[in-house]
Amino acid sequence: MQIRLADFGVMTESEQLSTLDRLLNGPQEEVSAVDAGIRRYELRYEMSSDEMRRKVAAGEIRETAEVADWLFLLRARPDRVAR
Amino acid sequence: VSPGKHGPNRLRNYLAVHSTIMQQLLQGGFVLSEGLSLSSDGTGGVIISGRVFCRGGIYVDVRKKVARVAGEGGDPVVQTSDYSYNVVLGGRGNIFRYDSPHPDHNREHHVHRYDVLTGDTQGSLDFIYSEDEIPTL
Which positions in chain B touch A6 (Cβ < 8 Å)? Predict the structure, then answer.
């Protein structure tokens, strides 16, 4: 479930509350969207996320905008503490 | 949990502040349109992502995680935990990008700056140690 912020801004208070409740407590398909984004980067760069992080930390690849986005998605994953 | 402008807030209030500031920027004329969306982060918070179009062919790619720090239901207390705001001159390259700390490198809030008009793709890096300098988009 995705909500355009422009649409959210013109909702009534009760509409906003019910929309947020559905977003946060409904089916969590957006989590898999994060995983799908990570997978796209792994395929595009032909390396695992762990390898990317290792190479960035070692200075072997630069932290480009795409790499920063990839790192963001890794941090945005719900189970990021274990990763 | 830090106090101040980056401190915790109710999600609805957080989004209302965002909406108010975005409306001001739209009325001011520099921001032409915004295509930001809200999705769940899977742990009771939200991810804000999308693109903000500005004058002069500039756009901002936004990724922000607003994590739940307390409360349940549809209006928990939240706080920004991670972000990446990449400002681009369309057709030329990146102008600057603000990133939250990464786990393995650049472990402070930081900004990458590029001399976009000369084709600079390496850029420079500055760390941010003052909360006031952390962007609030």
Answer: 34, 36
